[in-house]
TrEMBL record:
The protein's name: Carbon monoxide dehydrogenase
Ranges of residues in domain FAD-binding PCMH-type: 1-177
Coiled coil: none
Keyword field: FAD, Flavoprotein, Oxidoreductase
Keyword Ribonucleoprotein: no
Pfam families: FAD_binding_5
One GO MF term attached to the UniProt entry: oxidoreductase activity
Amino acid sequence: MKPAPIAYVRPDTVERAVGLLSESGGEAKVLAGGQSLVPMLNLRIAAFERLVDVTGLPGLRSASDEGSEVRLGACVTHERIQTGDVPDPSNGLMPSTASRIAYQAVRNRGTIGGSLALADPAADWLATMAALGAAIEWVGPDGPGSCPAEAFVEAAYTTRLGLYDVLTGIRIPRLHPDARWGTYKLCRKTGEFAHAMAIAIRQPGGCRAFLGATEGAPIRLPAVEDMLAGLRGWDASDAARLGEAMAADVAAAGRSLSDVHAWQSRTCLARAVAMSFGAAPPRLGRAA
């Protein structure tokens, strides 16, 4: 299939992009790589009168190391993150995540900002940025705005961005040099969107743990984080306690998972935690 007729414009500044969106009355969409949006247009799952292509804006393609944090422009591609062409504040977590997104042709054009703005719950960057404590930046008719990545997603395909806002960058705090992490996503074949996903980060001063691919915003797991802080190593017997803590966190967040999805998420979480300790991931099983 082909998309319905649509106008295509390439503004030369972010401010002009915001103006074009405002003029459209909600009938325009930002194009920032298009590796998810264009297939949706081709299948006519989505339809707009105008595409505003921001991928050529130099300010959105830049990356800067600012000491305690790294700022990535919204149009930095997955491939640049994977290959180390931009600074990595994550001790390897971000390159590892990027390497498992789709396949090389998609990574060459797909962007971190485009993925975050679309907010497909099964995409990799939503939970990863939340776990890293990143902040999302944008510009709109009322000027610049920002919020923690953890609070950016409101529901599936719904974010804090207004109709006329353009996501401009992501600020990612630098992990402690001694930080250790584990991440695991369950999918039918390498590169696909996740059916379940978990990330665990252990570092001096605090641990972070999130579930992704939850049919909505990533779910933070405070009880799991407390448990991680008390562990000195990984043992398979910890998996049951980990699953109980995860279930309590999901319930406390007012969320629910189907029995199958809960089992998948427990398994991903156990594997992520084991990896953060350098242990072999536990085998798939109900105890996990």
